[in-house]
Structure formats: C-alpha cells, structure tokens
Design brief:
Elements (H helix, E strand, L loop, with lengths): L3 E6 L6 H12 L5 E4 L10 H10 L3 E3 L3 H8 L17 H26 L4 E6 L2 E6 L12 H11 L8 E5 L6 E6 L2 E6 L12 E8 L3 E8 L3 H11 L4 H10 L7
Parallel strand pairs: 1-2, 2-3, 5-6, 6-8
Antiparallel strand pairs: 1-9, 4-5, 7-8, 9-10
Helix pairs in contact: 2-4, 3-4, 6-7
Length: about 260
C-alpha cells in the first residue's frame, strides 16, 4: 500500500496571520493532500485577504463549516437569528450575527461562490483504513459526534466496507483538541488553526500519515497574534472586543 500524507487546517476564522503561519509550516513538509475542515471565515478581521490565500491553494479539499453556512444563508435576515442554540436575545448571539453580516459584505459574490463549492464531508479509503473528514458531523455542522454516535456510524459504514480494519473520524468545530477511541474507531480533532480555545495562543496544523499503520501529529506554531488583534481594532467589525480577548487568552472571553 502506498503512503498518503494529509495536512489539515481548520477553523481559520478570517485570521490571516495564523493562516500564513500555518502555510509556512505545511510548506516545509512533504504532503499529498491538503484538507481544510471549515469555518474559514467570520469572526476575524481579514475575510477578503483570507479568501485570496485560500483561492491560491492547490490540491486543497474545502469542507463547509457552520459559520461558512451562515454566510450563505444570510442568517442576519432571519426573523430571530440563533446560533448553536443561543437565545436570539443574547447580546453575544446578536454580536456574532452582525459579524456574519460584516463578513458577508467583505467577501462579496466571489466569497459566496467559493463557499458554495465547498464539500459537506470528504471520505477516503486507503487500504484497510477509512477516514471521514468533516467540520463537525456528516449530518450536521454545528455539533461534533458523541462517541456513541460515532460507534453507531462505524457499525453502519463497515457493512459497506467489510475490508476496513480502522475507522478514523477527523473533525474541527470545537476549537479544542480531541483524541477519543473505542475499539477500531478513533475520533480526532486538532483544535483550531486561527482561534484556539485551549488556553494555548498558538496556531494548529495536523498531519495524518496513512500507510500500514497511521500517524496523527499536531504541530502548534507560534505567530504574532498581535497583528490580528491590532487589525481587529483598526477595522472594528462587530464583536471585535470579545474576539481580541479570545485571541489573547486562547479561550472564549465574552466581556463587552
């Protein structure tokens, strides 16, 4: 069986400095396939610049995240927009919704065309390995699978792929690293490239190598997040003060 090497980005959230740092890491490695697990846009200060970089990437499979979907849906036009179960009356929810609108205006039609072409999920079978790449879950984009859900999924999928010995489910969305296993299914999340929530203010790139076995490696890289924090201050998109605090501390900080 030939070796296949993946590099994985996720949850960039319009953080251009983090994306550029991630690509510096990736460009120093030998890879066969680049995967982006979604939430490329919204929240951060540089959606148009992020779009330009992503459009320039070759051999990249883009998966749509919930924030990318909000832009297509124009969620701010809904009667009582709600995100991930938040109350539409919550000022945090309202701030994020307005940030989505600002991001949409920055991206324009080129950005929406780019998002429309994204995949819902991506599956690869390599030898006796089956890998499912999603933003959160193949049936939804705003909540990752529980271990019980993943086990049910594995039991269903293995009927179609009886030769598969190991199932890997790789997702983003949570902004937190995850390694969870039950028998021959393993759930993996690297955290976030552009907006980590694990109190480590570094970007994240994951590398997956599949051969006779598989290797999962997360590389945390330093970048100057003050560039993003300062750009938020210059451009002042909705919700920007919360995002400055979140970037600085690498955890959700919703102080107004």
């Amino acid at each position: 069986m030939s070796v296949k090497r993946f590099a994985i980005l996720t949850d960039i959230h319009s953080n251009l400095a983090a994306l550029e740092g991630a690509m510096d890491v990736i460009n120093n490695r030998e890879i066969d396939q680049l995967i982006c697990l979604g939430d490329c846009f919204a929240l951060g200060p540089s959606p148009a610049e992020t779009l330009n970089v992503l459009q320039s990437l070759e051999n990249c499979i883009f998966i749509r995240g919930n924030h990318d979907r909000y832009l297509l849906e124009k969620i701010w036009e809904h009667e009582a927009p709600s995100l991930e179960g938040m109350s539409p009356d919550d000022p945090i929810c309202q701030g994020i919704v307005q940030n989505e609108r600002w991001t949409y205006e920055q991206l324009g039609s080129d950005g929406m065309d780019f998002i429309r072409k994204m995949h819902i999920a991506h599956r690869e079978k390599i030898g006796t390995f089956l890998i499912e790449f999603t933003h959160a879950w193949y049936e939804r984009d705003d909540q990752p699978p529980s271990l019980d859900e993943a086990i049910t999924w594995r039991n269903h999928v293995k009927l179609r792929y009886p030769e598969v010995k190991m199932f890997l489910f790789i997702h983003g969305h949570t902004h937190l690293p995850r390694i969870e296993q039950n028998g021959n299914i393993k759930l993996l999340c690297q955290g976030a490239t552009g907006l980590p929530f694990d109190k480590i203010p570094k970007g994240s790139v994951a590398f997956l190598t599949v051969d006779e076995d598989f290797e999962w490696e997360i590389e945390r890289f330093e970048y100057d997040n003050s560039i993003t924090i300062n750009r938020l201050n210059e451009r002042k998109p909705p919700f920007y003060r919360n995002l400055q605090n979140t970037l600085k501390h690498a955890e959700i900080r919703n102080e107004f």
